Amino acid sequence: MPRPRNAKEQECGSSRVNQKGEERGGKGNQRISTGVQRDREPVLMTRERGGTGGTHDQELQNNNISTFASQSTSIPALSVTELLPLMANIDVPSQPEQPQEDRKENQMRPAQPSLKTARARFLKGVSYFSGDMEVFAKWMEKQFILLQLLDWVLRGAAQVMFVNNPLSGLVIFAGLILQNYWWALNGFVGALFATISALILQQKRGAIAAGLYGYNGILVGLLMAVFSNAGDWYWWLLLPNVFMSMMCPVVSSALASINSCWDLPVFTLPFNILVCLHMVATGHYNHHFPQVLIQPRSEFPNITWAEIDIAKLFMSVPVGIGQVYGCDNPWTGGIFIISLFISSPITCAHAVLGSAVGMASGLALAAPFRDIYFGLWGYNCVLACIAIGGMFYALTWQVHLLAITCALFCAYLGSAIANIMSRFGLPACTWPFCLSALTFLRLTMETKRIFKLPLAKVTYPEKNLSFFWKLKKAGKERMVKEEQERAIKEEIILIEKEHLETDLTRIEEGIAENTHSGSENETVHANDWTPEGAQQSTEEERNNNLMKKILAEDV
How far apart are CA 158 and CA 173, in angstroms? Predict the structure, then answer.
């Protein structure tokens, strides 16, 4: 136990320690401060944990300081009382205060990830019921076959509008029920048996699950009921409905094998073929399945611009969308617009735009107001505008203008085909849409702003647009990489040329020196000339000439 020192001895000891610390400089002080900081940590930890009291903490602090002093090699061992004044004067190095702008940036940084995560969560939540509902489709793969069949039928009902969404299909069936119960039943039967027929024919399960074999069936069932002159609830009509609907996958598969050569879709060609076939086979004067009488126009329509109804003219826009399914109720058309918006806002916007273009085209061609109000000028333009405006082309403003042009062309073509088909007692169906859309999909242009998507990559406009952006970004990166590789190759070629030029200059200098030394040797040893020496010189010249030729070829 060391004897306690008096105050005078403590002051002498502290001054002696301070003097030695000043001689050793800031390096020793820094070492002491870090050591003391390191030794303070256990003391603070024991205090936080609730030690036995202040006496125990002080003893632990003294032991830590004495241990550090004994282990230090640069500072001599000192007692605890000698180091206490030093500990009192030690200042922990404080970090420099950050400017106010840096503080604001640090406060704003945590908010950015939260916004990104919130946006990602929102988009993920929206994807559960919008788009093609891919998550729901994967979940449905593990369910019972009847539930899967219902999902395929609903998707087939929506695929008439190029929408692969069962929720949209459910809303569409609600609109059909609002229009007419009998029509809705025939549409459901047509979609159901068309899907069953595709399963029997063992078509691609992915195409069946996407509803690509059901949309022609629902159109066949609906339009057979619409054009039937036997009235509602004529149950015998279900027999030809089932048969023609089951023929839809057969015609679709046959047409797909032809159109796939040009990477083109089938559209509603099977529906057009089968409905026209049924109506030609039965006709208006038929005992079992009479059809509505369709005749060509025989007189000028009574058109006076003063009698035009603006309200009905605006209502013709949703009616034109409803006429895609053969419905003339504006509320049904409004429900169809909602179903399109659920899946794809771009599809919804182009549907409304296409119907408006058809209405304007009817007014421009002096069509009867009744036909315009009835939506007959709009439904083909709706389908054409959707198909071109973001579905089979990646949406840009050039593609948007192309979609409007296609809708105008479809309106003119629809009037022409309607006049021709009425001569045979047949409706125009969707022939104008199919012909105009196929024509515009076969366009060949050199511009890169109008990009036709591969048929296997077509989903819905928003996803098609993201796929186009990824391709564009990948193309730019590929071009940059190719330019870099080209620049590296050019640099390598230049370096090799420089090396070859330096080698050539060295060889030429060596040859010149050899010839100079050879001439001197010839003058000195002119008398010592022999045929063997002449032969050696000629061989050297040949070798030099060969070397020059080889180097020249390399350059």
Answer: 9
| pLDDT value of residue 364 | 92
Q: 225: which 2 tokens?
A: 């009921």
Asked whether the whole model's pTM tops 0.85, one would answer: no
CA distances from 201 to 149, 247, 459 (A): 15, 11, 24
Confidence of residue 506 (pLDDT cuts 50, 70, 90): confident
pLDDT > 80? residue 151: yes
Is the CB of residue 436 less than 8 Å from the CB of residue 406? yes
Please say whether the beta carbons of 62 and 69 come within 8 A: no
- CA 350/CA 395 separation, integer angstroms: 11
Write down the pLDDT at residue 103: 53
CA-wise closest residue to 438 among 451, 427, 426, 452: 452
CB atoms within 10 A of CB 541: 14
How many CA atoms, within 13 angstroms, populate the side-chain half-sphere of residue 218?
27
C-alpha span between 528 and 545 (Å, rounded): 26
Q: What is the distance between the alpha carbons of residues 204 and 258, in angstroms, rounded to a whole number?
A: 17
Query: Which comes out higher in pLDDT, residue 373 or 3?
Result: 373
Q: In the chain, helix, strand, coil percent, each to 5?
A: 75, 0, 25
> Which among 267, 263, 372 has a CA at the least distance from the CA of 317?
372
What residues contact 392, with CB distance under 8 A and at least 6 apart?
A: 265, 441, 452, 453, 455, 458
Res. 203: pLDDT tops 60 = yes
CB 256 within 8 A of CB 204: no
What are 39-75's pLDDT values in tens digits?
A: 444 333 434 444 444 444 444 445 544 444 444 444 4
